[in-house]
Amino acid sequence: MNLLLLHARYQFLETIRVPIAVIGTVGFPALFMLLFVVSNPAVGGQPAAATLAAGQMSLFAVISASMFNLGAGVAEDRAKPWHPHLRTLPVGPAAQLGGRLLNAQLLALISLLPVTLTAMLFTRAHASPGELAAALLALLLAGLPFAFPGLATGYSLPLKAVIPVVQLLLLPMAFAGGLFLPPMLFPEWLDAVSQALPTRAVRDLVVGALTDTAPGAIAPLVAAGWTLVLGALAVVAYRRDEGRRFR
């Protein structure tokens, strides 16, 4: 546990030494909130719609922080001579990967602050303390399935390829998962596709926690299934990279 916390600490220090990376990660979701929610009185001025939009943008912030931080961070470290040396030490991958995941969760928490402040100051979003606590827990759990594709791209691709690939994965999944537009506005075919996506599943769980409503039986099963699939993908990518670099 001490090594895991040590890795997380140095991962965090390394991240904040490049302030523009942190600003980009935490700033874009709040910018989207301003552009799509605050600027639209039909959403930002209505308590129910504003609360829903705030939950969806908060989830986008968590997913974005997880995928970009882990994908770019791993790819950048793989290009440095220090990283292969670390992987030869008799520590095992648990401390390094655990430290990376903890650092990503911390950045995800930080990314929630601008979105929350924007929602509080410029919209009529409303939630009780209990609903906020439940939504925060749901958001932290929701980030886990999306940490795995971040790790998989980082261990599979060079840094120059990781960022566009993550963008190509994240933005379509975010839209089709209902993070930019409520799924009740989707056409029937898109709603059917959406319900099979991990973004839609965790979106329903987060919105359910934020509004104190039941998310339905499908969302937890889809979220759990995608977590297993994406986790397996990350393990395969890690072992493939290890076999390629240390054979």
Task: Note the main attributes of this structure.
247 residues, globular, ABC-type transporter activity, transmembrane, Nod_factor_ABC_transporter
Question: What is the average of the pLDDT values?
Answer: 87
Number of helices: 11
Oligomer: single chain
Gyration radius from CA atoms, angstroms: 18 Å
Count of strand segments: 0
The main sheet comes to:
none
Low-confidence stretches: none
* Percentage of residues in helical conformation: over 70%
Backbone shape: globular
Give the N-terminus to C-terminus distance in angstroms. 29 Å
Amount of beta strand: under 5%
Organism: Haloactinomyces albus
Pfam family, one: ABC2_membrane
Membrane topology: Multi-pass membrane protein
GO molecular function: ABC-type transporter activity
Blueprint (SSEs and pairs):
Elements: H1 2-16, H2 19-38, H3 41-44, H4 47-78, H5 82-88, H6 93-122, H7 129-156, H8 159-176, H9 188-194, H10 198-211, H11 218-246
Helix pairs in contact: 1-6, 2-4, 2-6, 4-6, 4-7, 4-8, 4-10, 6-7, 7-10, 7-11, 10-11
